[in-house]
Amino acid sequence: MTDRPGHMNLLAMLTNGGHHLTAWRHPKGQAGTGLDIKNYAQFAKMAEKGLLDALFIADVAALWGKDLDALSRTSRGEHYEPLTLLSYLAGVTTHIGLIGTATTSYNEPYHIARKFSSLDHLSGGRAGWNVVTSVVGDEARNFGRSEHFLHSERYERAEEFVDVVRKLWQSWADGAVVKDAVNGKYFLIEKVNAIHHKGKHFSVQGPLNISRTPQGEPVLVQAGASTSGKRLASRIAEIIFSPHDEINAARLYYAEIKSSAQALGRSENSIRILPGITPIVGKTRQEARDFFEQLQELVDPVLGRRLLADTLGDDIDLSPYDVDGPLPDIPQGNKGSRRDFALALAQEKQLSIRQLYLHLSKRNAVVGTAADIADRFEEWYDSYAADGFNLFFPHDPGGIEDFVEHVVPELQKRGRFKTSYAGTTLRSHFGFDIP
User: Fold this and answer.
1) CA 321 to CA 251: how far, in whole Å?
2) What residues contact 198, with CB distance under 8 A and at least 6 apart?
3) Which residue ranges are tagged as binding site for FMN?
4) Which fold has domain 9-284+364-430?
5) DSSP-derived secondary structure letter, 405
6) Residue positions in the annotated binding site?
7) Where are the domains of the chain?
8) What DSSP state is assigned to residue 434?
9) What is the model's pTM?
10) pLDDT digits 0-9 by tens, 105-139
11) What are the binding positions for FMN in this chain (predicted)?
12) Cα 313 from chain centre
């Protein structure tokens, strides 16, 4: 492995009520943030105070689960459209990056290119696009399809989709906008070109109707875990969300992605791999453990079964089965790596339904003091299992405040995290070149 930047990168995932499904019920969660924009603004400002590199918003274009009984026991039933929320948060922050999720399955390249270019312009170069292909079945039914594209077709479509978006982002050259009032030229026509794309899935003429952005292009983010997903990530992604919570598996994934990217002519440092981590911070280890156990105890079987079914496949019904018994036989589905991970875990550890859903609800959690969490970060970073982390704060408000006030200073004291922003764009936070 080549030398890496001196500091790890840290992102903050923004969710309604916090990452843990039951946090909104805990007194610390204050019944979730809901759609109160003041809470989201406070979260963003706190993340920027802690010098975190970006805010990240996940998304599905449907209710987050079709079992309304289970969904009603969480705060996930309502959530903002990411680019709308990020555009607002751009106005209350000055440095932190703004990464939003948008699916390639139920959008068109021109829409996505235009929206993320707009976010990049209005934020002064802080936009990132998390590229997803959609897994929730109701997303298909919300867009006139009875089911998703097949897994392989989703990723084939996604590759062409991203290619078209990048062509559109480059359809205005640097210096195209001159605003020459004397000669009556707002832009130079020779620096604005149609793309004339004709492919298997898309036909797009172009050019885009907004100029090249402050970053050249918004940063591309992806979470490739399946074979198709890893191929897409190696080819196009600059930030990659690793799915692993075990260090050896994370190291293998890290090495595979970096090697695959190099084989495609990319440098190792043009990609940052960030596993998801849920930091449960306490003044003592026991305080942290007690709080986490309180959250786990609030996971009732209705919610637990649904959490598991959402991972295994939309058509799986676990309600007839004893939660303290084993999983039934699960048919092949269209879920990809998340399903495979859960089934392998259940088989390897002989977990009951209850044990498996509780494991999934605590997956990626690191419970302890600020020093304990910093130790975990250092271990993964030094083992080339991660270049940093995508932080899932368990409860909101409170989770990010605990991290910024206690863990960030600990990491800075160890020389593992920056003490100021190096620039004002998302690319500058990661040391990425302008395309």
Assistant:
1) 36
2) none
3) 59, 101, 151, 155, 226
4) TIM Barrel (3.20.20)
5) I
6) 59, 101, 151, 155, 226
7) 9-284+364-430
8) P
9) 0.91
10) 999 999 999 999 999 999 999 999 999 998 777 88
11) 59, 101, 151, 155, 226
12) 21
